[in-house]
Amino acid sequence: MQWLRLALLNIWRNGRRSLLLAFTLCIGNLALLLFVGYIAATLTGLRESTIRAGLGHIQIGLQGQFDGYADQPLQYGLTRDDQVRLEASLESDAAVRRVVPRLVFSGLVSNGPRTLNFQGQGIHPGRERQAFGAFQTLSAGVPLQAHDRNVYRALLGREMARRLGVQPGDSVTVMSSTVSGAINAIDVEVAGLIATGIPETELYSLQLPIEAAQELLRTDKLSYFAVLLNDSALSEATQARIGLRLGHRYELKGWQQLAPLYTQVLQLYRNQFVVFGSVIALLVFLSVSTMTLTTLFERAREIGTLRAMGISSQTIRRLFVHEGWLLGLASSLIGAGLAAIATVVINLLQIELPPPPGRNSGVILHLLWLPEYVLPISLTLPLVAMLAAWWTSRRLGRLPIVSALAPA
Amino acid sequence: MGHLQPPPSPQSQPLAPASRPQPPILAVESVTKHYRRGSERIVALTDLSFSIDAPEVVAIAGPSGSGKSTLLNLLARFDVPDSGEVRLDGQDLASISPAALDEFRNRKLGFVFQQFNLLPVLSALENVELALAPQALSRAQRRERAIAMLERVGMGYRLAHKPGELSGGQQQRVAIARALVGRPRFVIADEPTGNLDSKTAAEILQLISELNQTMQTTFVIATHDPRVMQLANSVIELADGQRIG
C-alpha cells in the first residue's frame, strides 16, 4: 500500500504530464469502445436484417436441395409427406417461433411488350407476414393477403416494375417450366412493389402465393421450410439438435451458410478492429514509455537516494509500474464513461449515414453498448500502460547509484 | 582524542589470542582507485589506509577533487577499489554479492546528503518510514520507530509536514532521522551542513554529536566546513587522492 500511495502521489505531482497522458489513454479507450459499439450494431443489424428479410435462421429441405444443381425443377422438393412430417416436428420444438413454407422457381415475367427474367418465391402470405412481415417494405400497393380468394396476385421488385412499366393493379404474365419440363404461364395482378434497398433484389424479385406458384409449376411440392427461432444466439445449437432429430434425409442450412456476406463482413470488421486496436495500444505504449523515461531522468536523484537506502531496483521499478497501471486504469474508466455517454447521445441524435455499397438508402448510425466487450477493452489499456512502464523502467537496473545521486 | 589507527600489520597480531579481538568498525587498507576519462588515467585515491575502532565522528576533509567523494562511494560500496580493501565490521565490502548489497546498505548504512534528498510528496514521517520498507516490520512497527526517531531529532511536532513546508535545518533533521531509523552502525554524510546557515549548521552538528554518543553510531562526514572538523573526533585530510593528515 505504501508504494501504491507513493505512485498515486507521484502521478498527482506531475499533474500536467499525467493529465496529458491520461487524455491520450482516455481518448484511446473512448475511440475503441465507440468503434466496437459501431461494429457490434452494424453486425447485429446485418444479422437480424439478413435473417428477418426472409432468410430465417435455418432452412430445411431434402438432401441435395441446396446444392444448386437439379436435372428438373423441384427434383429435391419436399413431398406432401415430408411437409407434414417436418411441420409437425418443427412446430413441437420450443426454440422454433415460426415455420414458413417456400417454393423457389425462376422464369420470365412479361407485360406484353417487355419481358424480364425473375427469381421467384412461392409464399404463404399469412405465415410470411407473421414471421417476417415487419421487415418487408413495399414502395407501393398492398402485401399479398392470407385469405385472398384471388391467388393470382404478385409482388414485384420495384425496379422490375419500373422496367416493365407496371403499377399495382396492372396485369403481368408469369412463365416458368413445370416439374415435367413443359412451359406454363399464368396471368397475375400486381399487388405491390417490393423495396429492399438493394437494387439487384428489386430487379429480380417476384413473389406469388404458394398455391399459384404450385399451379404454375404443376406440383404440390415445396422447396424448403424457412425456420425462424426465438433467439438468434441459439441458432447453431438448435440447428444441430433439429438436424440430429430429423436424420439424413433432410439437409439443414444455417443463416450464416446461406448468407456468406455476413461472415465476410464479420471478418473484415475483426481485422479492422485488430489494426485500429493495435494502433491505439502502440500509441499508449509509446506515450507511457516516454513519460516513464522522462520521469526516470527527472527523478534520478530520488531513485539514487532510494537505492542508497537499500531499496531494491525491482521495488522502485514496481513503483513505476504502479504509476503506469493506476494512470491507465483511471483514464480508461473515464474513457469508458465518456463512451457510454457518447453512445446514448449518438443514438438519440439519429444521425443518417450515406448508403453503404450495394444499397440505395442511407442507414441510421446506431451504436451498441456491450458490457462483455467494454470490460476487457477497458482493462487492456491499463495493462499496456503497465507493460510500457515495466519495459521502460528496466533501465533502473543499469543506473549506477553514483550517477543517480550526482548533481544534475 | 582520535581513535584513528593505522591498520594492524599481520606480523603485529598475536599468534594465539586469549580472546578474539573485536574487528575495527571500519578499516580502509591500502586502497587505490583510479578512473579513466578517455585515454587519460585519473588517480582518485592512492594507497589510503585508516581504521575506526570505536563509534565516533570522523571528518573527511580536503578541497574539491581531493578524493572525498570517491572515498565515500567506496565506503557505501557504490564502487569497489582497484586494489586494497574496505572492511566494515570485519567484512570486506568487495565480497558482498550484488544481490546482497541492498540488504547491506539498508541494515548497516545510513546516508545524509547536502541537498537532504527527501521525497517531496511524502510527509516527514513517511520519508522516515520509507527507510524501513525493506525490513520485515509491520506498518505499526515502522510507524512507531519512525515517530520515535523523529522525536529524537526534535521533529516530533512536524510529522505530517512535507519537505516543502520545512526549513533547511528541519529537512536535514528529518534526513538524519531517516538515516538512523534503521539503527545502522555507520552513517555517511556528504556535506550535511553545506546548505544551511551557520546557526542551523551548528544545531545539526550538535545533533550529530549527541546521536553519535547516545546511539553509538559512527558518522563519516565529507566536508569543507571547519566547524565539522572541530566537532569531529578525528579528521582525515586528503589532497590529490592521498592522505596528508
From TrEMBL, chain A:
<keyword id="KW-1133">Transmembrane helix</keyword>
<comment type="similarity">
    <text>Belongs to the ABC-4 integral membrane protein family. LolC/E subfamily.</text>
</comment>
<keyword id="KW-0472">Membrane</keyword>
<feature type="transmembrane region" description="Helical">
    <location>
        <begin position="325"/>
        <end position="349"/>
    </location>
</feature>
<keyword id="KW-0812">Transmembrane</keyword>
<feature type="transmembrane region" description="Helical">
    <location>
        <begin position="273"/>
        <end position="297"/>
    </location>
</feature>
<feature type="domain" description="ABC3 transporter permease C-terminal">
    <location>
        <begin position="275"/>
        <end position="400"/>
    </location>
</feature>
<dbReference type="InterPro" id="IPR051447">
    <property type="entry name" value="Lipoprotein-release_system"/>
</dbReference>
<feature type="transmembrane region" description="Helical">
    <location>
        <begin position="20"/>
        <end position="41"/>
    </location>
</feature>
<keyword id="KW-1003">Cell membrane</keyword>
<feature type="transmembrane region" description="Helical">
    <location>
        <begin position="369"/>
        <end position="391"/>
    </location>
</feature>
<dbReference type="InterPro" id="IPR003838">
    <property type="entry name" value="ABC3_permease_C"/>
</dbReference>
<feature type="domain" description="MacB-like periplasmic core">
    <location>
        <begin position="18"/>
        <end position="242"/>
    </location>
</feature>
<dbReference type="Pfam" id="PF02687">
    <property type="entry name" value="FtsX"/>
</dbReference>
<dbReference type="InterPro" id="IPR025857">
    <property type="entry name" value="MacB_PCD"/>
</dbReference>
<protein>
    <submittedName>
        <fullName>FtsX-like permease family protein</fullName>
    </submittedName>
</protein>
<dbReference type="Pfam" id="PF12704">
    <property type="entry name" value="MacB_PCD"/>
</dbReference>
UniProtKB/TrEMBL annotation, chain B:
<feature type="compositionally biased region" description="Pro residues">
    <location>
        <begin position="1"/>
        <end position="11"/>
    </location>
</feature>
<dbReference type="InterPro" id="IPR003593">
    <property type="entry name" value="AAA+_ATPase"/>
</dbReference>
<keyword id="KW-0067">ATP-binding</keyword>
<dbReference type="GO" id="GO:0005524">
    <property type="term" value="F:ATP binding"/>
</dbReference>
<dbReference type="InterPro" id="IPR027417">
    <property type="entry name" value="P-loop_NTPase"/>
</dbReference>
<feature type="domain" description="ABC transporter">
    <location>
        <begin position="26"/>
        <end position="244"/>
    </location>
</feature>
<keyword id="KW-1003">Cell membrane</keyword>
<dbReference type="InterPro" id="IPR017871">
    <property type="entry name" value="ABC_transporter-like_CS"/>
</dbReference>
<dbReference type="InterPro" id="IPR017911">
    <property type="entry name" value="MacB-like_ATP-bd"/>
</dbReference>
<dbReference type="InterPro" id="IPR015854">
    <property type="entry name" value="ABC_transpr_LolD-like"/>
</dbReference>
<keyword id="KW-0813">Transport</keyword>
<dbReference type="InterPro" id="IPR003439">
    <property type="entry name" value="ABC_transporter-like_ATP-bd"/>
</dbReference>
<feature type="region of interest" description="Disordered">
    <location>
        <begin position="1"/>
        <end position="22"/>
    </location>
</feature>
<keyword id="KW-0472">Membrane</keyword>
<dbReference type="Pfam" id="PF00005">
    <property type="entry name" value="ABC_tran"/>
</dbReference>
<protein>
    <submittedName>
        <fullName>ABC transporter ATP-binding protein</fullName>
    </submittedName>
</protein>
<keyword id="KW-0547">Nucleotide-binding</keyword>
